[in-house]
Amino acid sequence: MKESVIKLIHTDTIPESSICVQCGKCSSGCPVAFESEHSPRKVIRFLQWGCLKEASQSPFLWLCASCQACTVRCPRGVNISSIMLSLRRIAQQQGWVMPEENLSYYKTFINMIKKRGKISELRLGLATALHKIPSHPIEDIVLFFKLLKRGKLR
Amino acid sequence: MNYLYYPGCSLKGAAIDYDESFQAVASSLGIEIKEMKDWECCGATVAKSVDEGLSETLPLSTLKNAEKEEKDLLMLCPSCYVNHLQVSLKAKENETFFEQYSFNQVPEVKQLLEVLAFDVGAEEIKKKIIKPLKGIKVLPYYGCLTVRPFRLGGKESYENPKVMEKIIEATGAQPVFFPYKVDCCGGTLLLSKEKTALKLCASILKQAKKLSPDCIVVACPLCHFMLDAKQRTIERELKEKIDLPVLYITQLLGLALGIDYKKLGIQRLVTSPKRFLQKIGV
Amino acid sequence: MQKTVPKTGIFIFDQGKRLARSIDLDAVIQRLARIKNVIRCEVLTDLAAPLPSIKEDFTSDKFNRIFWVGKFSDYQKKTIQSELSSAGLNPYMYEWCDLEEQGIGTKGVDSGIQTQKAIILIQMTLARTRLLEPLEPLELPAVDASLIIGAGVSGLHTATSLIGLCKKVYLVEKESGVGGKVASLHRLYPRICDPRCGLEFEIQKIRESDMIEVHTLSRVKSLFGSPGNFDVRIEKQSRYVSEEKCNACGECMKVCPAVIPEEQRSRESAFINETSQQVLNSLKSDKKAIHPAVPMTYPSTFVIERQYCPPDCRECVKACPALAVELEQTSSELAFKVGAVIITTGWDPYQLSKVDEYGYGIYPNVISNLEMERLLEDPPVLKEIGFIQCAGSRDERHLHYCSSVCCSVSLKQVLFLKEKLPDALCYIFYQDMRTPGFDEELYQKVKSLNNVIFIRGNPSTVKPGDNGKLRIHAEDTLSGKEIDLSLDLLVLAGGMMPSQGSFEIAQLLNLPQNNFGFFESHLQCHPEESQRTGILVGGACRGPMNISQSIESSHRAAMEVLPFLNRTILIEPKYPVLDLTKCDKCKRCMEECPFLSYVFDENGFPSLDLTKCRQCGNCMGICPLIAISLRNNTIKQIAAQVQAIKPSFISKEEPVILAFLCENDAYHAAQSAVEYGLPVPPNVFFIKVPCAGSVNNALVADALAFGIDGVLIAGCKDGQCHYVKGNQLVKTRSGDLSDKLQKMMIDPQRVRFESLEIRDSKKYVELVKSYIEELRAMGPNPFKS
Amino acid sequence: MPPKIDREKCDSCKAEKESLCEQICPGDLMTLDEDKKAYCRMPRDCWDCMSCVKACPKGAIETRIPYQLGYHVAKLIPMMGTNTITWTCIDINGKVERFQYINRGMLE
Hints:
The structure holds four protein chains of four kinds.
Chain A: H1 25-29, H2 40-48, H3 52-57, H4 69-73, H5 80-94, H6 104-116, H7 121-131, H8 137-149
Helix pairs in contact in A: 6-7
Chain C: E1 8-13, H1 18-22, H2 25-33, E2 38-44, H3 51-59, E3 65-70, H4 74-86, E4 94-97, H5 111-130, E5 138-141, E6 145-149, H6 153-164, E7 168-172, H7 195-208, E8 212-215, E9 218-226, E10 229-236, H8 251-255, H9 274-283, E11 290-291, E12 303-304, H10 315-319, E13 332-338, E14 340-343, E15 347-349, E16 366-368, H11 369-375, E17 384-391, H12 406-420, E18 425-430, H13 439-447, E19 452-456, E20 462-464, E21 470-476, E22 481-487, E23 489-494, E24 496-498, H14 500-509, E25 535-537, H15 547-561, E26 568-571, E27 576-578, H16 588-592, E28 598-600, E29 606-608, H17 618-622, E30 628-630, H18 635-643, E31 657-662, H19 666-675, E32 684-689, H20 697-705, E33 710-715, H21 726-743, E34 751-755, H22 761-778
Parallel strand pairs in C: 1-2, 1-3, 3-4, 6-7, 6-14, 7-8, 14-25, 16-23, 17-18, 17-23, 18-19, 31-32, 31-33, 33-34
Antiparallel strand pairs in C: 5-26, 9-10, 10-13, 11-12, 15-24, 20-21, 21-22, 27-30, 28-29
Helix pairs in contact in C: 2-5, 5-18, 6-7, 6-15, 12-13, 19-22
Chain D: E1 3-5, H1 20-24, E2 30-32, E3 38-40, H2 51-55, E4 61-63, E5 75-80, E6 84-90, E7 96-102
Antiparallel strand pairs in D: 1-4, 2-3, 5-6, 6-7
């Protein structure tokens, strides 16, 4: 790890990672930590070593739901949630996003805001569904018609 | 009590019933609102993940608007609330930022629950209840961003908030203690990591079912979408019948205030509230 | 007042002719002999021979003060002093000037310059010697009793060690009995013995002594006066049972209908199962409204908690065979005098309901470590037990510090639990196990037990599981693996915070507390001294500590209190005196005195409480009207010293520095620089001061006015000052002066403050050298004529 | 011309009794405002005796020299030692002159 120490790109939150004591409270309470091999604690640990690239490539980043459970419970007051967001941005700027990550949702979302200022859930849902078939397509089609009928899609 | 009401994307889309029921309840509780016309999306968590600048400029335009109107901002969607509050706090604390955007008085940003519980007050609500929901077990579910990270303006606890319980008690119904009330429903991940999102939501519905309430009450459009619209999909995943109606807190309140259920948008719920409505005699 | 003519004898002691090698001593003597009122001036190479003649000259009144130049060993100084004081010379009528420590004799410096510097140095001290006056220490009457607030383990130990020394003690406790928190513990580590056994040992000493008055159910209401003579007033709440009559037979308890309800802890009924019901039952106390004293039954008298009595109930009155119940008793007040106060108010457990992620108060089987102590007396059958360490300690949102005992406490509890329930499975969640010293043995012992699992990782929340069990989800940070546990009982190792009583006392006595509410003291050098003289703090009210540390601390406090309990308090005549004719009542001295030694007198002037004063001279430093002087180190003397410096002794371009050095550290740094043979430049003169904070800006202004190029003030680092903040005060003041210099178009760097530690001799030399360079670049002081 | 007070520096001599400048001003002109900062309440009556400048322990007071004598750059600054007083005179061209006196009265 030591060899891979690279210069940190200074952002507002990342220097905070050094005060982390690795108590694991963030991972314990994280609803999605065990979906990936990396927990938030490990991502912070990478940052403590200065391994920004490894941290940015962690699959955990894109799993984070920004629910802030880690942030409000951290005994050291590390803003873990915003570190994850910074890392997402760094990963994109540096081109470190792993190929298996599908960021089409993010792109569509941003384009929509830039074009219209607002989000249409209908368009957003359709656009992402086109990129990746949902896990329960039949239920989703039924739901689509139900929502339409109830005036919830416009 | 005069607020500038910022609806946000969901409230004008899949959560149209939240918007309808809120407007109905607001007028009968005497909350004066002025709806913003030209509002912009808050950027949700997506803008923060892609473009930090954008995630600030989007809420800024709303804040500047509210400053012009000299009113406090009222938000229903917790995600919008957190994003706006974050920027407004930055404007209050960071002098250069304050000056950069030539603020005079940074408007307060409030979430609906904060207004109902602290500005109106449970006592006041109780006085206006026409149809007390006696004998109804209501399970409150807060989701993550209502209390995190701002604890409704610092007035609530992170782990065991009680505002919804107070409102539920005011309607005459009985709140159920839900240990999972501040857990994440996975809503933000629905379009990017669908499987994970469904897993999170499933665990919440499963735990809620164990307590066998008459309905679940939420204050977040995304939580509502996950628990209500996606309930069928989750039943499929769990191979278990859930069948729990999910209402917005405003809808529950509206029913107790004696407002017609059509005005509250209850007919728009995906999971049928029929049995629940029968139980309260609507 | 008749002025005595200051007739001085100067003796230059040059053992081994070291001085003669670097300076021209003859020239020095010639120069000094010309000075008025220098009666005798000579070089000595040996002390023993000339001492009788010096004594002779003094007794025949040829001179009335003696100025010693040169390097003396501690032994030599002592000999001179005892010889001459036997001849009647007041010990404050000497001056010493060690030329070598000021840099005379440094290799490679021109001997002419050295001679000139030596003359100036001698003249500086001579100017000071002229102003010497004989001083006598003061003896103030004092009371030899002491007040101890709080009768926990610390209070009891302090009390017994003081009564062992035959000093009268008043022990005040707010509960109905003595013993404090420790008495409520089940077992103590490392010997796993019952704490009451050790406490009983101390209580027995108290029972047998007539040197102590124990006042339970009492609070200190007011405390005025000064060290040696405090006036204390305490309020004694009524006990409703007569101490004279009650013989603790217990008849009353049998008939008392009122059971004191348990402390309200909302538990969600939905989560109660068989085990948790058992847990709740074990924690229940069935204390009646009339009961023996708690926590320990000393005094043996029963007590009634009247708020729990049913209205008009007189059952106990009827039942008491000794007629001891007095329901109409009222509270009373008591006043007495003490010489000193020891505060042993101890600690309170941190409110675990604030650490709300762990569901304390919601789930019945989540309990605190203190409750666990009670549960351990008779534990229900439990299979899986979890312990969470640092519940609220070492946390930004709760207690920022490590409570230092909780790790060992949990280990002890596991050890004992496993003794009673050998099949139980224990999980200990920890961030870092902290078992300092011999507690490591405890750790190893628990480690070797079966079915005790240590998990390095903090759980985030506690959720209800099936059948009233608790579900815990955590990451084992060492393996990175997810852990899912279902527990019967969860023990939260809550931390220690200052007790409510500490806050009350702090407010009453105006005692400084640190950020966390523990009493402020100089943790390293004087841990038991509070910032108020005569008030000492012992035990856990000073910071988190375990029982043996508390006992050590309380004995130390008992030692430190002794000087106040001697019937007289000796005051060294080094205290400050205020010239009332100059004082303008600006109150700065009162504000800046770190020990609140000044009070207003009846005319609104500050007046010094000599017993509180620690003689640091910070008031002398701040006084804008230079009206305050330490008696043995007056501002006039220092001004005379400053004025005696002739900056022209060295070539005109060479800057001259005057350094004011704090005698606690900076002075020693400078002194040892010479001892180590470091090249101290000849440009610097220093004056030793009791604290950097005692340097008055007027003295600095004087130095600049007399053409000194730079003034260096050196003292402690922040937070290390023995007088709390003298260094910070002088830093601000010299900063103000620097600003003024800037306006005067003089380089503000001509005054500077630096921190030096006692071993910073190299740093001192570097500092002086670099300062000289800087001053060279600035050019000479414009006031240099 | 009235004295100029550096409000950052002024600590109103802890504001318990009269501040030192208040006590010393022969015309009784100096007083404290509601922020507890010293000011000259009748600037016209000040005759520039500079007593307050000398007395201020924080070095917060400066005299503005009357325009008949000099303007803008010109300054006259006293510095008080225990028994010395120094004067720094800066004229309108920025030329500096300094004087030093021994003032025995102070310490006696």
